[in-house]
Amino acid sequence: MDPTTNLSDPSDIRLALEELRSLAPAKIGASGSVAELDGVAAEVTGKASPIAAGRRSLGRIAPDERRELGRAINDVAQELDAAIAARRAVLEIREASAALAGDTVDVTLPGRVPRRGSLHIVNQVMDEIVDIFVAMGYTVATGPEAETDYYNFTALNFAPSHPSRLESDTLYLDYGDVPEDVLLRTHTSPMQARYMEAHEPPVYLVVPGRVFRRDQLDATHSPVFHQVEGLAVDHDITFGDLKGVLDHFAKEFLGPNTRTKFIPHYFPFTEPSAEMHVYYNGGWMELLGCGMVNPAVFEYAGYDPDDVTGFAFGVGADRLAMVRHGITEIRHLLDTDQRILEQYR
């Protein structure tokens, strides 16, 4: 029967209900998906269904038949709702199982391995330098990159007139109302004074880090580069100890057949001072600066220069990376081109 038919006669309502009761279960059972079932449910129990039409007609039926017809309509509606709910449960389980089967991951397949990263070549070199000295019993420390004039220069025995204090050489910071000049450290040596102020001897220390100078960027200079500072303070340390430690370092870093020699030099914070040269790739080259700690530095740090001696050295990690890998320009170390950096993974 057409669900839009105006059911005003009780016999028509009963006929429509019987027809619906006989045909609807087959339609419900034939639904192949939840979406299809929703369409069937709207047809057999929705607003356009014979059930809805019969309920709208009850008001025009004599009171003595209205209760009986209303009960009959509700009975059919409940039967069909129960059948729809049962079919819906079956379809939902079936569709959920199909979705899970479609999402199954084959755990036996090889995974997608992300591309392996690596440290920058300068970080690799700094780590290797530090590892060599840690193996000899040295402690690792780091210091602030924004440093005071006192620790960067005065505590290291730099004279007030030393040219490195000038703004043409050093990058000073506008740090507000502070009693001392603040600057970007020009070397990692300030940690010598800071560490000795906080620790009693003996001291065996390496300090890796970034430093800053007012240099123009060219093949061999950069305003930002990296150093590893070393300090050894104990009783009766000699220049022979310095030579032995640094000779061992050169052989560990560049190879066991590396030859070294020490050339006299000048540094404010060491006396005597030297440059260590190495014979590498067929020629001599300067590798680092070093020397015995100046007694004035001990006095600034609160050590008795008559009781302790020591040596210090500073090595440029960027320069060592260039020597090790045959890099001719420091600018290559600063380049963000992966084709360059990946050569030193």
Topology (elements, then pairings):
Elements: H1 10-30, H2 34-45, H3 50-57, H4 63-102, H5 121-134, E1 139-140, E2 146-148, H6 149-152, E3 172-173, E4 182-184, H7 190-198, E5 203-212, E6 224-234, H8 239-254, E7 259-267, E8 270-280, E9 283-293, H9 295-301, E10 309-316, H10 317-325, H11 331-334, H12 338-341
Parallel strand pairs: 1-5
Antiparallel strand pairs: 2-4, 3-4, 5-6, 6-10, 7-8, 8-9, 9-10
Describe the protein.
The chain folds into two domains: 10-102; 121-344, BirA Bifunctional Protein, domain 2 (2-Layer Sandwich). It has 345 residues and is α+β, with helices and mostly antiparallel strands. Helix 1 (10-30) runs antiparallel to helix 2 (34-45), helix 2 (34-45) runs antiparallel to helix 4 and helix 7 crosses helix 9 (295-301). It is rod-shaped, with a radius of gyration of 44 Å. Strand 7 (259-267) and strand 8 form a beta hairpin. The chain starts with 9 loop residues before the first helix and ends with a helix. The protein is built from twelve helices and ten strands.
Structure, briefly:
This protein is of the alpha+beta class and 345 residues long. The chain has 2 domains: 10-102; 121-344, BirA Bifunctional Protein, domain 2, CATH 3.30.930.10. The protein has 12 helices and 10 strands.
Distance between the termini: 80 Å
Rg result = 44 Å
**Count of DSSP-assigned helices:** 12
Mean pLDDT: 88
Residues in helices, as a percent range: 40-55%
Query: How many domains would you count in the coordinates?
Result: 2
The share of residues in extended strands comes to 15-25%
CATH superfamily of the largest domain: Bira Bifunctional Protein, Domain 2
What is the CATH domain class of the largest domain? Alpha Beta
As for the CATH topology of the largest domain, it is: BirA Bifunctional Protein, domain 2
Largest β sheet strand count, sense and barrel closure: 7 strands, mixed
How many β-strand runs? Answer: 10
The low-confidence runs, each spanning 5 or more residues with pLDDT under 50, are: none
Q: Determine the structural class based on helices, strands and strand pairing.
A: alpha+beta
Order of helices and strands: HHHHHEEHEEHEEHEEEHEHHH
Q: How would the global form be characterised?
A: rod-shaped
- Biggest sheet: strand arrangement: 1-5-6-10-9-8-7
Q: Assign the CATH architecture of the largest domain.
A: 2-Layer Sandwich
